Amino acid sequence: MGSAKNTSTASRKARIEEMRKAERARDRRGRIITITLSAVVVAALAVGGVVLFQKADDDSDKVASDGKSAPKFKTTADGEKVWDAKQLGRTHVTKDVSYAMTPPVGGDHDQVWMNCNGDVYKDELPERNAVHSLEHGAVWVTYNDKAKDADLKKLEQKVKQTPYSLMSPVKDQKDPIMLSAWGHQRTVTGASDPKVGSFFSTYVQGKQTPEPGAACTGGKGQ
Q: Which residues are listed as membrane-spanning (predicted)?
């Protein structure tokens, strides 16, 4: 009888131990799931934060300083920004224009264009006049003080050899070297970037030109 009782007690202890093991196993699984979910949430928040910052950065180009709604752009797979030409104003104005992007790629502008017959300017240009040059089908090469001298010399040579192009500094632009045409803009890594040649061949008097064939001489110079 005592033997049976001992056997029963041992069996009960064994079941209790199995239950405890099962409970500990469930606890471990619960902690693992909790930790995993927490990690996923943290990662999602981190990615979301990056996306928000990137979107905020992109959106900064969409807000004009005068508070008016600005034309939106799309970015191609290789980094070119493209604006809907229908959203870019083309009215001749005599007052300052607050452009939504730097350098501007279109919008209302002065009735006089900057000469863009391969002209290289050493000082910043009135934006309203440069935008008129883009309307005529010019490509505008711009740079800030972070651009390398060697790149600038090569780009100057290219511009001087290319009718319907112009070049000038833009101190406040985001990247060292940028290329703009009416409704199009991209950053390039330097004068040897193959995107320089493709941008010129595509947009110098390209299909985007609102006034193809309009003059790039007889306008405003420095």
A: 32-53
User: Which residues lie closer than 8 Å to 16 by C-beta, 6 or more apart?
Assistant: none
Q: Check whether 36 has a pLDDT greater than 90.
A: no
Is the torsion defined by CA of 181, 186, 192, 193 positive or negative? negative
Q: Which domain holds residue 24?
A: 1-59
Cβ–Cβ under 8 Å, residues 143 and 152: yes
Mean pLDDT on 157-178: 98
Q: Are residues 17 and 79 in the same domain?
A: no
Spatial contact of 112 and 219, defined as CB atoms under 8 Å apart? yes
Do residue 87 and residue 189 come from a single domain? yes
CATH number of residue 199's parent domain: 3.40.30
How many distinct structural domains can be found in the chain?
Answer: 2
Q: Which pTM does this prediction carry? A: 0.71
